Amino acid sequence: MHKIKLILIDVDGIMTDGTKIYNEDHEVIYKKFCDLDFTAIRRLMASDVNVCLVSGDLFNKKMADKRNIPFIYSRAKQDEIPEIQKKYNVGYNNMAFVGDDMFDYEIMMCCNHRFCPKNSPNDLQKICTKIIDRHSGDGVIARLYDMLVLMKLINPAEIKNIGSWHS
What DSSP designation does 18 have? Predict the structure, then answer.
């Protein structure tokens, strides 16, 4: 199998359990994230893997910007893949997508490596390389990092290269 050079991560339903709290104007005011996933993203980056969060919710863009994680504001459509491949200098074989819902199906099919949490719909699970043995928001990316190292799809990060969020 080809090594992964770029991982696209859907935010809601992967890094969160998918629950959103809205105000009376239907603006998102609260989501719960697992900090282990943010550490795992740093570990992926220290392993020379590009990571990009993908979401159609600008709430997530603010979070990504504060943590210096690249972000694509989109519902991740198939026609955006050539631009992403060019920007990160990767092809189909070196791309991975982590998603949880049928809305992710189209972009998943554009990536050789496809992952979802175990509470994803069966139709999505059928197309995945591996099912991550975690529920949405329960350290999905942290578990994925360990899986990718064991599968030899990425090199393990050296602790000294992980750094801090505010370096």
Answer: S
Torsion, CA 110, CA 114, CA 117, CA 118, rounded to 10: 110
Q: Give pLDDT tens digits for 76-127.
A: 567 788 999 999 999 999 999 999 999 999 999 999 999 999 999 999 999 9
Instruction: Report the C-alpha gap between 89 and 5 in whole angstroms.
Output: 9
Length of the chain: 167
Contact 109, 116 (CB under 8 A): no
Q: Which amino acid is at 62?
A: K
Cβ 106 vs Cβ 124: under 8 Å: no
Phi, psi (deg, nearest 5) at residue 28: -70, 130
Torsion sign over Cα 138, 64, 39, 28: negative
CA–CA separation, 70 and 82 (whole Å): 17
